[in-house]
Amino acid sequence: MESRTALLAGATGLVGTEILKGLLADPGVAAVHTLGRRKPSIQHPKLTVHVVDFAALPPLPRADEVYLALGTTIKAAGSQAAFRAVDFEANIAVAKAALAAGVRRAGLVSAMGADPNSSVFYNRVKGELEDVLAGLGFDGLVIARPSLLVGDREALGQSIRPLEHVGFLVGKVLSPLIPRNYAPIEAKKVANTLLSTVPFAKGKQVFFSGAMQRGV
């Protein structure tokens, strides 16, 4: 697995930042190309930054694997349509462009409740995204379905998500009583799961927080 080239969409997000750090530290990765609406704060000789419009992506450089970490909230996006444009349409656009660039393996940051038949809009979009990605023809697709994420959003210039903060505090107090799949999880552990499995992935694999907490 030497001299791999990786594509990463969403490198400025909570999990995306950790994925980027891991890729840059991996001696088996020769080059990393990030795709986003703004530049990540990290600079590195292996890193090439592409500021893009996800609705009109240019041809992507040839690569071996792609990591899809694009995501927002309905509150931040402003509407359900704007949320879907990021969480569904942008991720699918990158996946299709990555396939055209020779990518055969993909990793996705999804959500614990992802279900295309859910009555909850957020979970339904996440589930629809998973289903479409699974049908695109990647040799390997790894899906991470974390529960509430733990990380320093303020350091990334992001607004704090109250539900995540409350969930983290409750999780610390009640951790022995909370099933592992529902306990808050550090963004770095989600990133590490994808980084350790995507390069070797075959078929579709789904990881919940319990497995990611233990390490894959």
Keywords:
20% strand, 7 helices, two-stranded parallel sheet, single chain, alpha/beta, 7-stranded parallel beta sheet
**Strand order of the biggest β-sheet:** 3-2-1-4-5-6-9
| Number of domain modules | 1
Classified in CATH, the superfamily is: NAD(P)-binding Rossmann-like Domain
Q: State the shape.
A: globular
The fraction of residues assigned to DSSP E strands is 15-25%
- What is the CATH topology descriptor? Rossmann fold
- Average pLDDT rating: 90
The CATH class, by name, is Alpha Beta
Q: List the total number of helices.
A: 7
Task: Provide an overview of this structure.
With 216 residues, this protein is of the alpha/beta class. It has one domain: Rossmann fold (3-Layer(aba) Sandwich). It is 38% helix and 20% strand. It contains 7 helices and 9 strands; from the N terminus they run E-H-E-E-E-H-H-E-H-E-E-H-E-H-E-H. The chain has a 7-stranded parallel β-sheet, with helices on both faces. It has a two-stranded parallel ribbon with strand order 7-8. Strand 5, helix 4 and strand 6 form a beta-alpha-beta unit. Helix 1 crosses helix 6 and helix 3 packs parallel to helix 4. The radius of gyration is 16 Å and the shape is globular. The mean pLDDT is 90.
Write the layout of secondary structure elements.
Elements: E1 4-9, H1 14-25, E2 29-36, E3 47-51, E4 65-68, H2 74-77, H3 80-100, E5 105-109, H4 121-134, E6 140-145, E7 149-150, H5 162-174, E8 185-186, H6 187-197, E9 203-208, H7 209-214
Parallel strand pairs: 1-2, 1-4, 2-3, 4-5, 5-6, 6-9, 7-8
